[in-house]
Amino acid sequence: MKKALITLIIITGISFTGALNFHFILLDDNIKILKKTGLTFQDTFVDARGKMNKAKLLVKPALIKAGIKDLIK
């Protein structure tokens, strides 16, 4: 029981750390990961499939700082 609880705590901690530090961007053909410039949960999982969704992402300041323009061309 203790091992299961410790494992759950470790997995939860890793998940929170990943969500705070990275943008996960779903593109038409794959998933890209960008490092966030600040610790926040905002824009952690982003759908960039289709031209309209990509255009919406190009005006978000947090994603621009992270380098979304280089990723979407």
Question: What does the secondary structure layout of this molecule look like, with pairings?
Answer:
Blueprint: H1 2-21, E1 22-26, E2 31-35, E3 45-47, H2 51-57, H3 61-66, H4 68-71
Parallel strand pairs: 1-3
Antiparallel strand pairs: 1-2
Rounded average pLDDT: 91
Contiguous helical run count: 4
Low-confidence stretches: none
Find the structural class using helix and strand composition: alpha+beta
Major sheet attributes: 3 strands, mixed
Straight-line N-to-C gap: 50 Å
Query: How many domains, as an integer?
Result: 1
Q: Main sheet: which strands, in order across?
A: 2-1-3
Shape: elongated
Total strands: the figure is: 3
User: Strand content of the residues, in percent?
Assistant: 15-25%
User: Roughly how many Å is the radius of gyration?
Assistant: 15 Å
Approximate helicity band: 40-55%
The string of secondary-structure elements, in order, is HEEEHHH
Give a description of the structure:
- Strands 2-1-3 form a three-stranded mixed β-sheet.
- The termini are far apart.
- With 73 residues, the protein is an alpha+beta fold.
- It contains four helices and three strands.
- The mean pLDDT is 91.
- It has one domain.
- It is elongated.
What distinguishing features does this structure have?
3 strands, 18% strand, 4 helices, 73 residues, alpha+beta, three-stranded mixed β-sheet
Short description:
Helix content is 51%, strand content 18%. It is α+β, with helices and mostly antiparallel strands. The protein has one domain (2-71).
